[in-house]
Amino acid sequence: MTDHLEPLAPAEAMQMYLDERSHELADATIQSHRYRLKQFVQWCEQDGIDNLNDFSGRDIHRFRVKRRNEDELATASMKGQLATLRMFLRFCATIDAVEPGLDEKIILPTTTEDDARSELLNPDRAQQVLKFLDQYRYARLEHALVEVLWHTGLRIGAAIGLDIEDYNNDEQYLTLAHRPEEGTSLKNGRKSERLVALSDSVCEVLDDWLSVNHPGVVDQHDREPLFATKIDRLSRTRGRTIVYQYTRPCVYTDSCPHERDLDNCDALPTERSHACPSSLSPHPVRRGAITHFLKSNVPENVVSDRMDCSEAVLDRHYDQRSEREKLRQRRRYLPGN
């Protein structure tokens, strides 16, 4: 241990980092950093690292190998994981927890445009997931959440921030409101506020969820959350876990494409569902929904408004149509073609 460093446990350092950055980063970004650093802290605990003073470049390498090989992180996800770790270690150096310059030993993987948008929930798979939920978890929290995420393309943070009063079942739409002072902000602030239309089928599920299974709780701000557990508003972490849980192929097909033993798979427990190579987080659901809208000939400006992202971002990060598909769709709007 270097003499000038002061002992600090990984979990305590993580909380100090998040507290420091909370004043400058959006809530959604803080949640992402929390999720990524939680993986790092858990690895440290499993590896017996209880003091960051001892953390070295070799430990960075071992963590990277573990996340890449054992957890099978995609290149884009690995880049995000390591970028957050690099900022975290840079902060730790300022409070004398690690050697200065340790963050510079983290080399971020190079990603291509395809890496950035390769994961998505395609329509066929989405229907399999929803069919399973309709049959076995009808109008329960999981069913209502996944129905809304798929049919609207909402970010998970926007979805969990909805209140019952934000749902208009008569006119079939959701009202997205930016309420940072009450813990439910939208990614782009008030610019993200909008009305989102719903279909008959989604409204039917929401109506049954509210009338039969909703726990009727209020949050700490005396608001009635649309998506709630028995004790509080659905958290971002629990929302992510639900999506991971029900996008595992073994859940809706009763078989494993990775030839794993279904009784002994390490991704079998709900809290480990993210370890399944085929499970998806909420963002690929959003990406799949956006691509599905575009392939269904919904104009890009309409999709852009509905999904709260610019057309440039839509094209670069979400649109997975081939150039030939785009050509065929454009021809439908051009006379004489």
TrEMBL record:
Q: Where are the transmembrane segments?
A: none
* Keywords, alphabetical: DNA integration, DNA recombination, DNA-binding
Q: Name one GO biological process term.
A: DNA recombination
InterPro entries to which the protein is assigned, alphabetical: CB, DNA_brk_join_enz, Integrase-like_cat_sf, Integrase_catalytic, Integrase_recombinase_N, Integrase_SAM-like_N, Tyrosine_recombinase_XerCD
- Residue ranges constituting the Tyr recombinase domain according to the UniProt record: 116-332
**Coiled-coil boundaries:** none
Source domain of life is: Archaea
Pfam families tied to this protein:
Phage_int_SAM_1, Phage_integrase
Core-binding (CB) domain ranges (all copies): 8-93
Q: Name one GO molecular function term.
A: DNA binding
Q: What is this protein called?
A: Integrase
